[in-house]
Amino acid sequence: MVKDLNLNAMNHFEAVARLGRVSKAAEELGVSPSAVSQQIRLLEQQFGVKLFRREKRRLSLTLDGERLFQTTTQAFRMMRDVRSAIVRQRENRHFIMRVSPSFGVRWLGPRIKNFLDENPGWDLRVDGTPDFTDFETEIVDLDLRYGAGDWSGLHQEAVVDDFVLPLCAPSYLEELRKLSDDPIAQLRQARLIDSVKTHCRWDFWLARRGAMGGRLVYPLRFDRSSMAIQVAADGGGVVLESATLALPEIERGALVPLSVGFEVLRFPAYWLVCPSRHASRRIVRLFSDWIRAEGRQHDAHVAATLTDLGCRIEETDTLASITRGAV
């Protein structure tokens, strides 16, 4: 059985068989020739066969020794290759993270070069996926995740806020204003675009304003905020979405608030999540410090942009505290 094998003796045997001399094997292994000879004798006693025969001043393998050598040299070569790969990986310094897809594309992607410029020498891998990381079985340093901050047993820190409000293209808003001057009446006749994976959706938002009466139809549903935002910017309807993700469209006027009379809901939405043991890793600390500063700057910019448009911002610690007051 494997547990019965003397791996130290096997290592000595492989070196002698490969180099042909005990003295050369001893030099490579950093031990004395007598230590090498002793390990070979132990291995021959364990197998009950002769592994070498002496021919003049050189050792040659017996048939049994040749069979053993073919297996051991391949195994030790594979182990040396793996060791070299591990050492190279440690020297190269890898950072692996996951991120919610739309946030990764629209927020993190345009900024990540700044982090790399400030922290050269790191190899970065970013997986944009809706699936949360199983840190016990997957090799991931941290997860940058959209949510309510309810990941039990994990280190979590809110780093970027959401600013949620109804948005549409200016051309679509003009169409709605031809139907009514009342924003609630406009919504009842509008094509509503539903972002199905957001925490703040139309049914909750409309109920909170007592506007559930009349037609409530979602002819357009998307599981990615980036798709919902793009369709709204193209004039496809009204989307209840994040100004955090839609800021470029808002700044260039491709999206506008449906009504500045509707307050903007602001709450922590994007979180750094990882096991507590990961939080002490140098790269995790570096990234956390960087994104924390980026998040503060971004949140202030979004708030100022929406305020300049005439919007009022309602702040809350968590989305749950808003939904508790919903109908």
Describe the fold and architecture:
The protein has helices at 7-19, 22-29, 33-47, 63-92, 101-108, 112-118, 170-179, 183-189, 202-208, 225-233, 243-251, 276-279, 282-308, 319-323, and strands spanning 52-55, 58-61, 94-99, 123-128, 142-146, 155-168, 192-195, 220-222, 238-242, 256-257, 264-274, 313-315. The chain is α/β, with parallel strands linked by helices and 327 residues long. Among the domains are: 2-92, Orthogonal Bundle (Arc Repressor Mutant, subunit A), CATH 1.10.10; 161-267 and 301-323, 3-Layer(aba) Sandwich (D-Maltodextrin-Binding Protein, domain 2), CATH 3.40.190. Strands 3, 4, 5, 6, 7, 8, 9, 10, 11 and 12 form a ten-stranded mixed beta sheet that branches. The longest helix is centred in the first third of the chain and has 30 residues, at 63-92. The termini are far apart. The relative contact order is 0.12. One of its GO terms (biological process) is DNA-templated transcription. Belongs to the LysR transcriptional regulatory family. Keywords: DNA-binding, Transcription, Transcription regulation. Residues 5-62 form the HTH lysR-type domain.
